[in-house]
Design a protein that fits this description.
Elements lengths: L1 H42 L18 E4 L5 E5 L3 E2 L9 H11 L11 H13 L10 H10 L6 H17 L2 H11 L6 E2 L1 H9 L8 H8 L14 H17 L5 H9 L16 H15 L9 E4 L3 H22 L6 E2 L13 E8 L3 E5 L5 E5 L9 E3 L2 E2 L14 E7 L5 E4 L5 E7 L6 E5 L11 H4 L9 H10 L7 E3 L20 E3 H6 L3 H11 L1 H11 L21 H12 L10 E5 L5 E4 L7 H6 L1 H36 L2 H9 L1 H5 L38 H17 L14 E6 L5 E8 L2 E8 L12 H4 L1 H11 L21 E3 L8 E3 L10 E2 L58
Parallel strand pairs: 1-5, 3-4
Antiparallel strand pairs: 1-2, 5-18, 6-12, 7-8, 7-12, 8-9, 10-11, 12-13, 14-15, 14-22, 16-17, 18-19, 20-21, 21-22, 23-24, 24-25
């Protein structure tokens, strides 16, 4: 009986336990969805709008081109090229599904099986598992959330995934995913990754390449085929196996893909010409105005600078600096016994380690491992440097110059030999402008950008010395003086100041013309006394100098203020163009990634009448030249196709096998790529600008009377023909003018010169002002650089000179004078054209040349300076810089950067 009672109690307990478990299960079954949706209702108000992620932004590097379409600079390494669902190849979709979410089209945004793996990852911090995020969850994370590994972030991701599934179709979700996912090497999205890793469009990818890309989202650095090819290959092959397992590919496709090499053909743009000073000033100007995102907007910026002119300018500066170093002696080796790899190349100067010293030569090893010999002719210049004014005797043997294991610099010569060199301590800069428009034709900021990024052409405020005298003399001419007016060159004393001429001589009464072309200091001082310092400063401000940096004393006549080479070039352009104040600019056009014109400069012209009269003819010629260029390119492409076809027909089996064996090697050379297959290579992304069509230009303001401009230009021509720049007569031209400039103790050497088609200024000096040497006048240090550059620029240029006639039919009138820098500008009131009045500060203005009847463009540039406050986070949706970067032709040009 007792046994039966015990059995009954056990059965009763088990039944009760079963009922309790069933009740608990029922409660849990109800609690989980109730809790889930309760949490969803709690989080819903804080979740972002799904409509915000309907589009992805294009991101491509900023490219900078010369006026002759040579790529000279590129900034930004982010690639993002959005695609539509219809543009995604079916095989690529299958590869991503196999790798990331095979049940994507079946689940509702959350995978229960994957969620278990995700919770395990969070609890154990085990990164070895595959994770549980569906494609929808990854979209939620990539567009809205951070990558932190917390349970709270994962729950938010789950609710967002459900919200996305409710509001978007599966096709939309997949499209968002493949456009946003980071795939390494700066590539965001599948189209960018196909371009980055294979230089291909999506439709040209093979199964193996699709699988490689699909393997990257899990860990873009770990499975990167560039950095970790073996790991990448293993994961690629696993995905190929999954694709076969899921029935996406057949056995033959599987085997072919498994046996395929990695075959990377990395997207690597190469500059046609490296011009870093120009590229950096362009980048800086655009970033200052539009923000950092401009470097990822895919813009193609064309400058006013011709690459050949720029190379000539850089070569002239380098030659002048090396010549100065030779005049002042050898400072010794850079180091001794140091590893050669510690030293980098600057300009054309390669580091080398001396391995053997002979009597009148030495041998050295280059960074490439090449052994070279420097003969006596390449080192005999190296007299010992003692000071800026003293050098030692000429050496008699090589051991007096170098020792074994010395690190020295070698320069290649035109005859194939090597010359001993040294990195210059002196610096130089050059600015060349088109005096009709202000377009920058060449600009050199220093010896080498990698050695010093300081741009002396724009940022180098130095005393202009005697180059300022023509501006002072012009004020006198405006007030009624004439070139033959008599001015005293006798001694003068102002208080305790007793200025002197550089030759310590006095010429008595001489003409104003002679006083300038002989650069007589005392004549300049007396003229400034007569015309008034205030009026002179006002006119210098109109020329483009900053009045706040000009002294209010008579030392102004000798160049005691401060100016940049760019400002001096702007001032001298006024003499070359007949008296008009042009505004320097350097950005000619801006195009978007699709080669649509966004901006085109329309500078005020020194003779707008002349330009506008020729406008129709110029535009017709541009169309004709463009059509001829396209026809020539088409013929060249057709000829190339015929050549390739002929070669293919003649190729036998053995050649084909050799070609296959060397396929990877050949693929690395962009020049031999089959552009029908590798259709997303850097070549495909080059600027292909449509034909340019100009519109009518406006007249630049006149600041000098035509007669005054002509008379001053004529006096400056005398400076070359019989004055301090007589050395320039070696160019064999009588249609050039200019002025030498040397400051106290020869701390700065200048030459500012012009031709009616070109205004160019050269400066040389030390960054920390100190004497160049007692004989280093402007005519010795700077003038030869100017001559070297202008020789090439004036080749085949017909003889012409500044006209005394007012070809622009312009008048001096009330006008706004544009300053080059942000601080700048002065408004000149001149109703009578006979009297210069005080200048008043006004805001900077700029000009543009608008394209004819542009179609509406989907994006717009905010025409405003970039804010100076700290830049907000890239993930901040309220940050306007995170909006799609775009532009329409705007009303102002980017300013010259300070």
């Amino acid at each position: 009986m007792t046994k039966k009672n015990a059995t009954a109690r056990l059965i009763h307990f088990l039944v009760g336990l079963f009922i309790a478990c069933l009740a608990l299960a029922l409660i849990l079954a109800l609690a989980v969805p109730i809790g889930f949706y309760g949490m969803a209702m709690y989080l819903s108000p804080t979740l972002p709008s799904i409509q915000e992620i309907k589009t992805a932004n294009l991101e491509m590097p900023l490219q900078i081109y010369s006026s002759d379409d040579k790529l000279i600079g590129q900034y930004g390494n982010r690639l993002s090229l959005p695609v539509t669902f219809e543009e995604i190849p079916k095989g690529l979709t299958q590869a991503f599904l196999a790798a990331e979410d095979a049940s994507f089209f079946q689940h509702s945004g959350i995978s229960i099986k994957g969620l278990g793996r995700a919770v395990t990852e969070v609890v154990t911090d085990d990164e070895s598992q595959t994770g549980g995020s569906t494609i929808t969850m990854q979209v939620a994370k990539n567009y809205f959330l951070s990558s932190e590994r917390t349970l709270n972030r994962k729950l938010t991701e789950l609710f967002l995934a459900r919200k996305i599934e409710d509001e978007l179709s599966k096709n939309d979700i997949l499209t968002l995913y493949v456009n946003k996912i980071y795939l390494g090497e700066g590539a965001y999205g599948i189209r960018a990754a196909a371009k980055k890793y294979y230089s291909k469009s999506l439709e040209n990818l093979t199964v193996a390449e699709m699988a490689m890309l699909a393997g990257l989202p899990k860990a873009p650095s770990k499975y990167n085929p560039v950095a970790n090819p073996s790991r990448a290959l293993t994961r690629r092959n696993w995905i190929i196996g999954r694709m076969h397992e899921l029935g996406y590919i057949n056995k033959a496709q599987h085997d072919e893909a498994i046996n395929a090499p990695i075959g990377i053909n990395l997207y690597q743009e190469k500059l046609d010409v490296n011009m870093p000073y120009l590229a950096e000033m362009t980048r800086s100007a655009l970033v200052n105005r539009y923000g950092e995102q401009v470097m990822h907007g895919g813009w193609r910026v064309r400058l006013t600078v011709d690459s050949e002119a720029q190379k000539a300018a850089e070569s002239a500066i380098l030659t002048g600096l090396v010549a100065y170093e030779h005049r002042h002696g050898w400072r010794g080796a850079e180091a001794n016994g140091e590893p050669l790899e510690k030293f980098r190349r600057y300009s054309n100067m390669s580091p080398a380690k001396v391995t053997k010293v002979n009597a009148r030569s030495f041998e050295a090893t280059m960074p490439s491992g090449e052994n070279v010999t420097v003969n006596w002719s390449g080192m005999s210049w190296a007299r010992k440097y003692i000071s800026a004014d003293r050098i030692g005797y000429f050496p008699s043997n090589a051991s007096q110059i170098v020792s074994k294991n010395d690190i020295v610099r070698l320069i290649p010569t035109t005859n194939g030999n090597w010359q001993l060199g040294q990195i210059p301590e002196v610096q130089g800069s050059l600015v060349s402008l088109n005096p009709e428009t202000g377009a920058v034709r060449a600009l050199v900021g220093g010896f080498d950008f990698n050695h010093s990024k300081f741009n002396r052409a724009l940022q180098g405020w130095r005393q202009p010395g005697s180059t300022i005298k023509p501006l002072v003399y012009t004020t006198a001419l405006e007030k009624g003086y004439r070139p033959d007016s008599i001015v005293s060159d006798r001694p003068i004393q102002v208080g305790d100041w007793k200025p002197k001429n550089s030759d310590q001589r006095f010429l008595g009464d001489i003409t104003l013309r002679r006083g300038l072309y002989l650069s007589r200091n005392l004549v300049s001082i007396r003229l400034l006394q007569a015309i008034g310092i205030s009026d002179a400063r006002n006119l210098l401000d109109e020329f483009g100098l900053d009045k706040e940096k000009l002294p209010t004393t008579l030392s102004l006549a000798l160049g005691a203020g401060q100016a940049t080479p760019l400002q001096m070039a702007t001032a001298y352009a006024t003499f070359a163009n007949g008296g008009h104040r042009i505004q320097p600019y350097f950005i000619e056009q801006i195009y978007n990634y699709d080669n649509k014109l966004l901006f085109q400069a329309n500078p005020q012209q020194a003779c707008a009448l002349c330009f506008n009269e020729q406008l129709d003819a110029v535009n017709k010629k541009l169309i004709k030249d463009y059509e001829a260029k396209i026809e020539a390119e088409n013929k060249a492409a057709a000829a190339k196709d015929e050549s390739i076809s002929a070669k293919d027909n003649a190729t036998d089996k053995k050649d084909a096998e050799l070609k296959a064996e060397n396929n990877d090697k050949i693929a690395k050379d962009d020049k031999v790529l089959d552009l029908d297959i590798y259709d997303a290579s850097p070549y495909a992304d080059r600027l292909k600008a449509p034909v340019v069509q100009y519109v009518r230009a406006e007249q630049a303001p006149r600041i000098l009377k035509p007669r005054v401009a002509f008379e001053m230009a004529d006096i400056l021509r005398d400076v070359v023909q019989r004055g301090t720049a007589v050395k320039a007569r070696a160019l064999g031209r009588d249609d050039i003018g200019g002025k030498t400039g040397t400051t106290n103790e020869a701390k700065d050497a200048w030459f500012a010169g012009f031709h009616p088609t070109n205004a160019t200024v050269v400066w040389m000096g030390f960054d920390q002002p100190s004497t160049l040497g007692r004989r280093e006048y402007g005519g010795v240090a700077a003038l030869p650089v100017w001559m070297d550059f202008m020789k090439a620029q004036l080749k085949d240029t017909p003889h012409q000179w500044v006209s005394i006639n007012n070809r622009a039919k312009s008048k001096k009138q009330k006008q706004s004078i544009i300053e080059m820098m942000d601080e700048g500008a002065a408004e000149l009131e001149d109703d009578t054209a006979d009297e210069v009045k005080s200048a008043k500060p006004v805001k900077t203005t700029t000009q543009q040349r608008k394209p004819p009847a542009p179609e509406p463009i989907e994006e717009q540039i905010q025409n405003r300076p970039a804010p100076e406050k700290p830049k907000p986070s890239r993930t901040d949706d309220n940050n306007p810089q995170n909006k799609p970067l775009s532009a329409t032709p705007v009303a102002r040009m980017p300013p010259m950067p300070e």
